[in-house]
Amino acid sequence: MLIDGPAAPRARFLFAHGAGAPMDTPFMNAVSGGLAAAGVQAIRFEFPYMAKRRDDGKRRGPDRMPVLLETWHTMLSELPGPAAPVFIGGKSMGGRAAATFAADPEHWSGNGPDITGVICLGYPFHPPGKPEKTRLEPLQKATRPVLIVQGDRDRFGTPDDVDAYRLAAPIEIAWIDDGDHSFVPRKSPGRTEADNIDAAVKHVTAFIDRVT
Fold first, then answer.
1. Per-residue pLDDT for 68 more than 70?
2. Where does residue 132 rank: exposed (0-12), middle (13-18), buried (19+ CB within 10 A)?
3. Domain boundaries, the chain
4. pLDDT tens digits, residue range 172-208?
5. The three-state (H, E, C) secondary structure of the chain, written as one string
6. Rounded CA separation 168/146 (Å)
7. Does domain 2-211 correspond to CATH entry 3.40.50.1820?
8. Residues near 173 by Cβ (< 8 Å), separated by ≥ 6?
9. What is the Cα–Cα distance from 97 to 35, expressed in whole angstroms?
């Protein structure tokens, strides 16, 4: 577990990694650092398959959804630290698993702190090149506030894709200009990866302020 941010934060964000990379990538570091600077405590952890890879160096595919959900249950029930509104979410798969967990009251009711909202950074609406294979169920069942921060060039879900979906009322989507699945822009004057991550952090902190 990695914890960034003040000891007395205005909110806490339990922040999961994506399918192919661990909790301490440059993307995860930059987002966590930006949130910490804004007074939000970012708490990172790894799902079992990624923790095993860290131990033995062997690449393996992600755990199945029941294991991901059980990990969320464990992390919330054992969450240390100060009392503050708790948000859950993550990068890509981590955000999808968080949205799935929060969409079913049986998963989180009575199992630790209440979930104030969900934050998804690069939601995998569908696999790249397979727009028919959507992953919308947790977004259609959502009852808690959900923020999705999405690059407008994201192959996992573009503005045209998302405009065609019927999502639940609590869903908010913030688009990152010229960003890919990790918010990286094309190489052109006037916009950098750091700019886009900074924009994403501002969307997240504004969402936290609105919800809390």
1. yes
2. exposed
3. 2-211
4. 999 999 999 999 999 877 889 999 999 999 999 999 9
5. CEEECCCCCCEEEEEECCCCCCCCCHHHHHHHHHHHHCCEEEEEECCHHHHHHHHHCCCCCCCCHHHHHHHHHHHHHCCCCCCCCEEEEEECHHHHHHHHHHHCHHHHCCCCCCEEEEEEECCCCCCCCCCCCCCCHHHHCCCCCEEEEEECCCCCCCHHHHHCCCCCCCEEEEEECCCCCCCCCCCCCCCCHHHHHHHHHHHHHHHHHHHC
6. 9
7. yes
8. 147, 148, 149, 150, 162
9. 21
Which residue in this structure is represented by tokens 């600077």?
Answer: 37
Q: Find the helix or strand (DSSP H, E) in which 115 lies.
A: strand 115-121
> Residue type for 56, please?
D
The first and second tokens of residue 19, run together, are 């399918």
